[in-house]
Specification:
With about 375 residues, this protein is of the alpha+beta class. Helix content is about 60%, strand content about 20%.
Length: about 375
């Protein structure tokens, strides 16, 4: 069996790289090149910068093309084996269909792992650097790490725990400027603080040069000035605060999870973010799903082994897959179904279809 497995793997390699090149070329030709051309015509971006942007966009494209290439490779490889009668010969020799598809499924799992790694380790950093470059030539300055008019309002049992406002948060230094902090107990304000700055230390946030008002029903307490005040009840670190200004596609899965938790602490609807979170695994897992589906499609008797046929069939499957993904994502974001099911809907559907087709071919 090891010889047969190595033989099938060799059959998969060439069409896989053909698929990566073909689908990557489609994405580049239909989207990326038009974007880069617009940058050149409207902002006069230099050639070296355009080349840099080109390569920074490739990781995100590759994450999408790996599952597609896996689908094409399995269809073409098993289509050729079937068309040349090798599948029939192997089955006559006592090799079951289920054993024959094992190399394809292993390749699918391997590509799933590689895609997850690229999506986590490369794509967020590449997207962030791409955003910085685009911002710089559009606005003539570096992408600011500051956030203006920032509000943080975590909830405690549905009521405000505190309200923190800063006119300007500097993400590079972690300093808040012109800060207003209002603390609540049992849903009622008890303390109001105004400070020129707030800085982060090991103990937490420190308010500098401000005034504090203690609020009690029926009483009016004069403002007390202070040079330093420790606000230990604020749990947000500068790194967590800075993440609010980050785009979702610039976060890895851990950062996205923390971002969702922070948004939910403030009572915000995070269905959209949760769908994106679950898609970080659902989309790469399409490589395994496609391998499972493509094997019985390629094994069908008298199927043409030509690359054009394989490419055409792959495009049809991909269209249906991403149509289901779009529908599932929309339903998950609106709350019609859970975000998890919204992200994985297309995988579950194709897993069932692939399993049924494999069972029918293997009988």
């Amino acid at each position: 069996m090891k010889i047969i497995y190595r033989y099938i793997v060799r059959e998969l390699i060439a069409p896989f790289f053909f698929g990566v090149a073909a689908f990557t070329g489609i994405f580049i030709g239909t989207d990326l090149l038009f974007t880069l051309t617009r940058y050149y015509n409207e902002w006069g971006v230099e050639l070296l910068t355009l080349i840099q942007l080109f390569f920074l966009n490739l990781p995100e494209i590759i994450v999408l093309t790996f599952p597609m290439a896996t689908l094409l490779a399995v269809i073409m490889a098993f289509g050729r084996l079937s068309g040349d009668g090798e599948i029939t010969a192997l089955r006559a020799g006592g090799v079951s269909i289920y054993k024959l598809v094992i190399p394809a499924l292993v390749i699918g799992l391997l590509m799933t792992g590689i895609t997850i790694a690229v999506n986590e380790l490369v794509v967020p950093a590449a997207n962030y650097l791409n955003e910085q470059i685009v911002w710089e030539f559009k606005h003539g300055e570096k992408l600011p790490a500051t956030q203006e008019n920032l509000f943080l309002t975590p909830l405690d049992r549905g009521r405000p725990d505190y309200v923190l406002y800063t006119r300007l948060f500097d993400g590079d230094t972690g300093i808040m400027h012109d800060v207003i902090f209002q603390d609540y107990e049992e849903g009622k304000p008890v303390t109001l603080i105004e400070a020129e700055k707030a800085v982060w230390s090991k103990e937490g946030w420190e308010f500098l040069d401000g005034r504090i008002y203690y609020l009690k029903a029926g009483e009016r307490i004069p403002a007390l000035k202070f040079a330093r005040y420790d606000a230990k009840q604020i749990a947000y670190t500068p790194r967590r605060v800075a993440r609010i200004n980050k785009k979702i596609d610039e976060m890895n899965i851990r950062e996205l999870k923390e971002y969702i938790e922070m948004m939910e602490e403030q009572g915000r609807n995070t269905n959209k973010e949760r769908v994106k979170f679950h898609q970080r695994l659902a989309i790469p897992f399409a490589s395994f799903i496609f391998a499972l589906l493509a094997a019985p499609l390629g094994i069908q008797p008298q199927r043409s082994s030509g690359s054009a046929t394989g490419l055409g069939l792959s495009i049809i499957v991909i269209f249906i897959y991403y149509s289901l993904m779009t529908i599932g994502s929309a339903m998950g974001e609106q709350g019609s179904i859970s975000p998890f099911l919204g992200a994985w809907l297309q995988n579950f559907v194709f897993l069932i279809i692939g399993g049924v087709l494999l069972y029918r071919v293997g009988r």
